[in-house]
Amino acid sequence: MKPRHFLGQLDRQRIETAIHQAELVTSGEIRVVVTRRRVEDAVAAARAEFARLRLHQTRQRNAILLFVAPASQAFAVIGDEGVHTKCGDTFWSEVASAMQGHFRAGQHTAALIEGIERAGRLLGEHFPRQPDDVDELPNQVVED
Prior knowledge:
This protein has a 4-stranded mixed β-sheet, sandwiched between helices. Strand 1 (29-34), helix 3 and strand 2 form a beta-alpha-beta unit. It has helices at 3-9, 12-23, 42-52, 81-104, 108-126; strands at 29-34, 63-69, 74-79, 142-143. The mean pLDDT is 93. By secondary structure, it is of the alpha/beta class. It has 5 helices and 4 strands.
């Protein structure tokens, strides 16, 4: 799919609201990146974006990135070491699997919201929001 078409279908306001809502119950941070580039390896590209956006600099190392490359029809869900340590590999496959059905049905916004909501619930279990919690990262969808 052409990235311009994909991006034109996204309801950024709903996605950003879902991120805000998910982060109300956790100290974790969630970001969404949509790239216009073709990628051979979505996980490697997601890792590069994770580093570029400095998501590894959260206090508890508990950021998650939902990365989408529509030109390659690929996506990845990755997280920092704090998330991986507490949640394990099962977490990533559960979130990706839930999103994949929506993507296949052409429901791009629904796919991202599903991933955000699942990530938020799991982050809330392992990294509950603390009284001194601050939103460390912006909630806007990143387009590159």
